[in-house]
Design a protein that fits this description.
Largest sheet: 7 strands, mixed
Number of helices: 20
CATH superfamily of the largest domain: Formiminotetrahydrofolate cyclodeaminase monomer, up-and-down helical bundle
CATH architecture of the largest domain: Up-down Bundle
CATH topology of the largest domain: Four Helix Bundle (Hemerythrin (Met), subunit A)
Helix content: 40-55%
Number of domains: 3
Distance between the termini: 45 Å
Structural class: alpha+beta
Length: 568
């Protein structure tokens, strides 16, 4: 899984488009970063920029954006409706995939320190990155806003975590709040009512803050206060969730509008189920869901898996099918079409041109792949076909597992087969990636022959590059062998325990996997033979022989089990 983080800086300029564009251009100049959204607000005089990428590019883009904001925005002249303390007011890092909140907190502190050391910008660290418990709350860091900074910087208890005093840099740039927080989901739940009051009642039932306590538990009774004269609140059921009810003219319905601030504590499907429960208790029905903005892919995958489990259905289906289950289960397309490619961060980040190159072969139709293989070109060749055969073996083992999970009378065993299907999906994905990688390895060797070879130095560089590329070309089919070997235990388990009607499919899975293994072994050997120094390839050849021996043994066991089913 790629390590992806989101950064959502808020800059204290929402009116001058030229300034906003220059800040965004500084962020966009970093390779590996994708700007997803730019949202300026005139009344607030504030712009929210959303960009994503892997950690190092995101940190560099955040630094460049803050540097450009420091250059272009003078806080001494800033006025707007939104609280603010700096030209770059807040700079949160948000884990999307492959990285934890704790890791983002470390990155945020590193970024804050760099902003101060290299640019002189005072920085508070907030939420998960806070050095002091009270500073987990952004409002504490930003108390008094920009105007209070001279006083706060003179106070050891209130000064920023990185600060040298209220100097000329601080006077112009203010103080930046750098933090790490969990991904926030903005979501609206559609109700079969036009009543804002009823939607608000459901919101009060579920939001963490809850509702004000009233005498007799009624909605109109006298407000109840404690011994100190403070209002008593009845908390709602969803931790970390904020919600209100409203009526939307555009749709002609009322909604519960919610922010889920901790998607680990309250996943989207948990919030949906709870709002459905609270609505039903008040005679209402949730008719659909509207996701506002973007979400990490994991959010929808988790939704799909939750409802598949409720149905006691196999989880070993494709990512696309799992997302489709999520969309239908929560009626995400209730009000308008829902396109995951436009709502999921990872899909938004995909470079279609790059993907088309990296996945050229596996994106072909089967007919086109066969025709491409049959052409005069040396690639794709045996290595890619071997990986393809292994992938088909994994697909067949997965199919048997899914059919077994769905077999009438075997409902209590669905999880057993679902686990096998999930493993099969992962192996299939690995082998599919090797279809194109094997051809890429061959092309890498061909590129070496195009290198200049006039001088002694050029000849030496060419020879070294060729040796490295050839060793790599031998290692790729070994990876195909390792991956295809993992198919055989699945095929054996399905031959012995799976749906008897599909036993022959488990046998073909084993045969395809072994064919892929033996074919890939030939590629290991022929590429190793092209090395000037055979020593680095010796471990590869030894391992290839061991894999073949293990594969043939497992194949024999699979076929024995299959034949027992056929002959019985």
């Amino acid at each position: 899984m790629r390590r992806i983080i989101e950064c959502v800086p808020n800059f204290s300029e929402g009116r001058d488009r030229a300034v906003i564009d220059r800040i965004v251009a500084a962020i966009s100049s970093v390779e590996g970063v994708k700007v997803l959204n730019v949202d300026p607000g005139e009344a607030t005089n504030r712009t929210v920029v959303t960009f994503v990428g892997e950690p190092d590019p995101v940190l560099e883009a955040a630094f460049k954006g803050a540097a450009k904001a420091q250059e272009l925005i003078d806080m001494r002249r800033h006025h707007g409706a939104h609280p603010r303390s700096g030209a770059t007011d807040v700079l949160p890092l948000v884990p999307v995939s492959g990285i934890t909140l704790e890791e983002c907190a470390v990155l945020a502190r590193t970024l804050a320190e760099r902003l101060y050391k290299e640019l002189g910008i005072p920085c508070y660290c907030y939420e998960a990155a806070a050095f002091k418990p009270e500073r987990r709350n952004l409002a504490v860091c930003r108390a008094g806003e920009y105007e209070a900074l001279p006083e706060k910087m003179a106070d050891p208890e209130r000064r920023p975590d990185f600060c040298g005093g209220f100097d000329e840099v601080a006077a112009r740039a203010g103080a930046t709040n750098v933090g790490a927080r969990n991904f926030l989901i903005a979501v609206n739940f559609n109700l079969n009512t036009t009543s804002t009051r009823r939607a608000m009642a459901v919101a009060f039932d579920v939001r963490e803050k809850g509702r004000k306590a009233r005498e007799g538990g009624s909605l109109t009774g006298r407000l109840l206060k404690d011994g100190n004269g403070e209002q008593i609140w009845i908390p709602g059921t969803l931790k970390g969730c904020k919600a209100i009810g409203w009526y939307i003219d555009e749709y002609g319905i009322a909604q519960v509008s919610m922010n889920i601030t901790d998607i680990e504590a309250v996943p989207l499907h948990v919030a949906y189920e709870e709002v459905c429960r609270a609505a039903a208790a008040r005679g209402l029905k949730v008719t659909g869901t509207e996701i506002v903005g973007l979400v990490p892919k994991k959010v929808l995958i988790d939704v799909g898996r939750f409802y598949l489990e409720k149905q006691r259905r196999s989880l070993g289906i494709s990512e696309e099918e799992t997302v489709k289950i999520a969309v239908k289960s929560m009626s995400l397309d209730d009000l308008k079409p829902f396109n995951p490619k436009e709502k999921v961060i990872e899909y938004m980040m995909e470079d279609e041109t790059e993907l088309a190159v990296r996945e050229r072969l596996v994106r072909m139709t089967f007919k086109d792949f066969a025709a491409e293989t049959a052409s005069e070109s040396a690639a794709p060749g045996g290595g890619s076909v071997s990986a393809g055969m292994g992938a088909l073996g994994a697909a067949l083992a997965t199919m048997v597992a899914n059919l077994s999970a769905h077999k009438r009378g075997w409902d209590d065993r669905w999880k057993e087969f679902s686990d096998v299907a999930e493993r099969g999906q992962a192996i299939m994905a690995e082998l599919l990636s090797l279809v194109d990688e094997d051809t890429a390895a061959f092309n890498r060797i061909m590129d070496c022959f195009a290198m200049p070879k006039g001088t002694a130095e050029e000849k030496s560089a060419r020879a070294a590059a060729l040796e490295e590329a050839t060793l790599y070309a031998a290692s790729v089919p070994l990876r195909t062998m390792e991956a295809a070997l993992k198919v055989l235990p699945l095929a054996l388990e399905m031959a012995r325990k799976g749906n008897p009607a599909s036993a022959s499919d488990a046998g073909v899975a084993a045969l395809a996997a072994v064919a892929g293994i033996r074919g890939a072994a030939l590629n290991v050997r022929i590429n190793a033979s092209g090395l000037s120094d055979r020593k680095p390839a010796e471990p590869l050849l030894t391992r290839a022989d061991a894999i073949i021996a293990e594969a043939l043994n497992l194949q024999e066991q699979v076929l024995e089990a299959v034949n027992q089913h056929i002959d019985s």
